[in-house]
Design brief:
Layout (H helix, E strand, L loop, with lengths): L1 H24 E8 L4 E4 L2 E2 L4 E7 L1 E9 L3 E9 L5 E6 L3 E8 L4 E4 L2 E5 L2 E5 L1 E8 L8 E7 L4 E7 L8 E8 L4 E8 L2 E9 L23 E2 L4 E20 L2 E18 L12 E2 L3 E15 L2 E10 L10 E12 L6
Parallel strand pairs: 1-7, 8-14
Antiparallel strand pairs: 1-4, 2-3, 2-5, 5-6, 8-11, 9-10, 9-12, 12-13, 15-16, 15-24, 16-17, 17-19, 18-19, 19-20, 20-21, 20-22, 22-23, 23-24
């Protein structure tokens, strides 16, 4: 029995170094190269850029292949170790992208990769798209081929889009009355503006034959005792407009206008029955000039304008000057660019 126990002890002692050494002689390794290339170990070529394999410790040969144009071998010394060792063999080239204007987004195969100017590693054939503010610039597209360790440079001048054609519709208002404004404009365009007091109808200008001469402290005026009761006003103008900035338009035009201060007869005063019930003794009539600016934000329009009627109706008449504001919106075809 003593001999049997001694024999088993000797066999166990001899087996322990072998068992302890077995895990260290075999090592799991992970090999990686650039996307688009193939990598292999000791002639075993992977179908993609990664290979995981358990190999014995010692010398090995790593092969990196890119199509039929490039192949390179590397010596790898695998040492006994625990866990998994990762070995990388990148063969990327370098792509540099610039644009005018700068700050454009670079898309590689549809994935954003940063803003110009930018440099990043790349290998193989890829689709490039360079884009900045699609409402203002056309995008640039290209297809590039980057070989292993090559340096490729691309520069793109982004062409500006023509401004979108906008239809503009606004309501305008002032102390004299209300109106409507319509326009079409790209870089340049045209407008038409109509306004009226609406109180007495458009262009109801009916001056008396003799005219009135003075106003007293009680608010009455002239022979027949009239008192002021509003005004009649109307203009029609059209003209030229231009896009001064992405959000600012200016316009200038001319047309025709009439303005008259309205007076009504005071029925409480005796002796004026022979005089007209309504007269328009003071005002202006003739050519009208219309200028203004429009601020655009998205589809919202806000404007400020000035209209003057240059002609006087009589020596006692006065030139009419109107400052008005407008509020409206744009109309355009929102087609995909």
């Amino acid at each position: 029995m003593r001999h049997l126990a001694a024999t088993l002890t000797l066999l166990a002692a001899a087996a322990m170094p072998v068992a302890a050494q077995a895990p260290q002689d075999s090592v799991r390794v992970r090999l990686e190269t650039s996307i688009g290339a193939e990598i292999g170990l000791d002639g075993d070529i992977s179908s993609n850029n990664m290979l995981t394999k358990r190999v014995p410790a010692g010398q090995h040969t790593v092969t990196v292949r890119y199509g039929t144009a490039y192949e390179k071998e590397y010596e790898l010394d695998v040492s006994p170790a625990s866990g998994q060792d990762v070995y990388r063999y990148p063969i990327d080239g370098q792509l540099s992208v610039e644009s005018v204007p700068a700050g454009a987004t670079v898309y590689i195969d549809g994935i954003p990769q940063g803003s110009t100017p930018t440099v990043f590693p790349l290998l193989g054939d890829h689709n490039i798209r360079v884009e900045k503010d699609p409402e203002t610039y056309y995008e640039a597209t290209d297809r590039v081929s980057v070989d292993p360790f090559a340096e490729v440079y691309r520069s793109y001048a982004l062409r500006k889009r023509p401004p979108r054609l906008y239809g503009m519709v606004m309501a305008t208002g002032s102390a004299y009355g209300f109106g409507g404004f319509a326009a079409l404009c790209r870089r340049f365009g045209a407008f038409v503006h109509v306004s009226s007091s609406f109180k007495n109808g458009l262009f109801q200008y009916d001056p008396p034959g003799g005219g009135l001469h003075y106003a007293d402290t009680d608010g009455y005026t002239g022979t027949g005792y009239y008192k002021e009761d509003g005004h009649a006003y109307g203009t029609v103008t059209c003209g030229f407009m231009a896009r001064c900035h992405k959000y600012v338009y200016a316009y200038i035009g001319a047309g025709y206008g009439e303005y008259a201060r309205k007076y009504v007869k005071d029925e409480s005063i005796a002796g004026n029955a022979l005089y007209p019930d309504v007269v328009y003794p003071y005002g202006s009539q003739g050519a009208a000039i219309d200028v203004g600016v429009i601020a655009k934000w998205k589809a919202l329009l806000v404007s400020c304008g000035y209209t003057t009627i240059a002609g006087k109706h009589s020596p006692s008449g006065s030139r009419s000057n109107e400052v008005y504001v407008g509020l409206g919106f744009t109309i355009h075809k929102n087609k995909k660019r």
